[in-house]
Design brief:
By secondary structure, the protein is an alpha+beta fold. The protein folds into two domains: 99 residues, Phosphorylase Kinase, domain 1 (2-Layer Sandwich), CATH 3.30.200.20; 189 residues, Aminoglycoside phosphotransferase (APH), C-terminal lobe (Aminoglycoside 3'-phosphotransferase, Chain: A, domain 2). Helices cover 46% and strands 13% of the residues. The chain is built from eleven helices and ten strands. Strands 1, 2, 3, 4, 5 and 6 form a six-stranded antiparallel beta sheet that branches. Strands 7-10 form a two-stranded antiparallel ribbon. Helix 4 packs parallel to helix 9, helix 5 runs antiparallel to helix 6 and helix 9 crosses helix 11. It starts with a helix and ends with a helix. 42% of the residues are buried.
């Protein structure tokens, strides 16, 4: 039942143990929730997704996820949205990281031209950015922590020091902004996390919720579909256009979106450097170059 791609992934020392438990967990959930398998299993980076039918014959999917902090509040966000702009939650067992969700179509926004896809995502922002919940992590706390970690990054790190220092300064200042925790964020909204629906054209999936600032959201639209931006022959122009379209459709402040994008891509670089160091490996230079290119493009 476990797809090869999921079995081959690795997410720390608890991953193998979770994979070993997964077949029994899935069987238990199918029995307890009166579900019948209805297709081949699929997977994301950290979850098995099994098409099922409910006792009433409704088409749904059972999502059994690897427990990790980013997904801890997924069920809360989906319940708060109630199917408005996002996949509908039918049932949840957060202690077992299990969700029963409405079934969507397998098509995502990558079938659309980039500008059209960005406009769809930005349109979803207006629906998903409802008042924040108490449970998801607060962006202000993370910004405060990242400001210190960025400032402590060695000067010999393989990213321009001026962007590191700029991001540290911006993060510290934004952490004290009273509006920075005001809204519920999806946290990872981009083309591959928006699927075609039956009751609506497009619906968001797989949130990594934050209590945060809507201007935090557009950055993944810049680092995804990277080859398409490069292929334009004007990387700077392509990235700036994506951010401009997102801000225009969603009614975001371009300057604040720029600042939080700079912070977010430099945090990506920080994580890559730290993860590589922990593995005793060299950081992914292509990924670091992408983050620096975004920071440069949105402001130079």
């Amino acid at each position: 039942m476990i797809p090869a791609g999921l079995a081959a992934a690795g997410h720390g020392p608890d991953w193998a143990a979770w994979l070993e438990r997964l077949p029994r967990l899935t069987a238990d959930l199918l029995a307890e929730w009166s579900l019948a398998p209805d297709g081949e299993p699929a997977h994301g980076r950290t979850a098995l997704v099994l098409p099922v039918r409910t006792e009433d014959g409704e088409r749904a999917v059972l999502k059994a996820g690897f427990p990790h902090p980013e997904a801890a509040a997924e069920h809360l966000a989906l319940r708060r949205w109630g199917g408005h702009g996002a996949v509908r939650l039918l049932r949840a067992d957060p202690h077992r990281s299990a969700l029963l969700l409405e079934r969507l179509e397998p098509r995502d926004l990558r079938i659309l031209p980039v500008d059209d896809a960005v406009a769809v995502v930005a349109g979803l922002y207006r629906r998903l950015h409802v008042p924040a919940l108490a449970q998801p992590p607060r962006l202000s706390d993370a910004l405060r922590r990242w400001a210190g970690e960025l400032a402590a990054l060695p000067r010999g790190a393989p990213v321009p020091r001026r962007y590191v220092e700029q991001a540290a300064t911006l993060a510290a200042a934004l952490a004290d902004d009273p509006d920075v925790d005001a809204r519920l964020l999806h946290g990872d909204l981009h083309d591959a996390n928006v699927l075609a629906g039956l009751r609506e054209p497009w619906l968001a999936i797989d949130p990594k919720p934050w209590s945060g600032d809507p201007h935090w959201e557009p950055a993944p639209l810049l680092w995804n579909r990277w080859s398409a931006a490069v292929a334009t022959g004007d990387l700077r122009g392509a990235l700036r256009r994506r951010l401009a379209v997102a801000c225009d459709v969603a009614g975001l402040d371009p300057d604040r979106a720029r600042d939080l994008t700079v912070v977010r891509v430099m945090v990506n670089a920080l994580w890559e450097i730290a993860d590589a160091g922990a593995r005793g490996a060299d950081p992914d230079r292509d990924w670091l170059t992408r983050q620096v290119a975004i920071a440069k493009a949105v402001q130079d």
